[in-house]
Design goal:
Three copies of one chain form a homotrimer. Chain A contains three helices and eight strands. Chain A is α+β, with helices and mostly antiparallel strands and 139 residues long. The longest helix of chain A has 14 residues. At the A-C interface, strand 3, helix 3 and strand 8 of A face strand 4, helix 2 and strand 5 of C.
């Protein structure tokens, strides 16, 4: 069994954004030399997500508005977590809806995807450098 | 390390439905010959889910109504994604709540489940043929 | 390829609670002797979650209140599932938001975590003994 590990670093300027990281994950898979196995891609921060969906900007705006409805950023005083001096409680909630990680099959050296699947980094508390972990195991 | 791959195809008539796919996944596991490892089961479409919960029709109705409350299908014009000509933006949102995939332990050649765990395909934009991927790695 | 399996048992008195199980998972990893691979940690019950987030009590209260807003426990008659004699339909819904499982990379014999990642068991229908499965594969 082979294993391969890579960190992807991002610095998104705004508070919230979605970034297609599929090319970086494909590059990591090529570097790994693994042909059959599983690839784990996870946010290393608890106010961010990794998820699979469509690379369509209208949908991303829909996600943004929908998540703000489910877990609004303001007023920040509505969240007990923000009494610690943070203002990012909503980001911890949003990340639970969108998820921490994806596990993707690796087949014939490729990410084994359906027709529209793309991997996104979802940032909910940006403005600083943050990381995604890619861990691939297989043969 | 062994690996095994199988696609499960479904064509659900209505827009939304839940289908118990545990027998098909168990069959795939038996075909794989893998005794110890991990099984990934994921929707290959971004308007569908694979999740684990109870095979109880009342609960499935509760999910249906709850998801419609969280992310209503209509009016379709409320979603920017639907300006692309689609009417399935709500399906992309519902799928995030229910999840894309499950990873199940394989122990002694069986899906290593608690007492009530069953695997479901959740369709949120049906009426056409769609797929679930089963990828199993182990020995 | 090595594989390792362990059940963690909990008996939380109240209906809902969050419990940090990172030390138990780390202990299981040490017992496994696995240095590189993947660790699956999943609730074996369908009214409970395993998720990764922050060990901060204010945030846990925020989760508790937020989940009650998204999927209230009462009135229990609002859910069809509760016509089966159960009163835990809300727990099946809350568990979907928080997730069934996490998959964590294992690197150099350690859980490969970002700075604040901790693994929690989320109980939404407590008052009885319930289980979490840890399955680790690798070398």
């Amino acid at each position: 069994m082979k294993s391969y590990r890579k960190e992807l670093w991002f610095h998104l300027k705004g508070r919230r954004a979605f970034l297609n990281v599929t090319p970086e994950v494909e590059e990591a898979l090529a570097e790994s030399g693994i042909r059959e196995g599983l690839a784990l891609v996870n946010a290393m921060h608890i106010t961010a997500s990794v998820f699979i969906n469509d690379d369509e900007s209208g949908l991303h705006q829909d996600y943004e508005e929908w998540l703000e409805t489910l877990a609004p950023h303001a007023p920040t005083a509505r969240y007990r977590h923000n009494q610690t001096g943070e203002d990012n409680a909503d980001a911890h909630l949003k990340r639970q809806v969108m998820g921490r990680e994806v596990v993707v099959a690796v087949t014939n050296g490729r990410l084994d995807f359906g027709p529209w699947e793309q991997i996104f980094y979802g940032e909910f508390d940006g403005g600083r450098r943050k990381r995604v972990l890619v861990k691939i195991i297989g043969e």
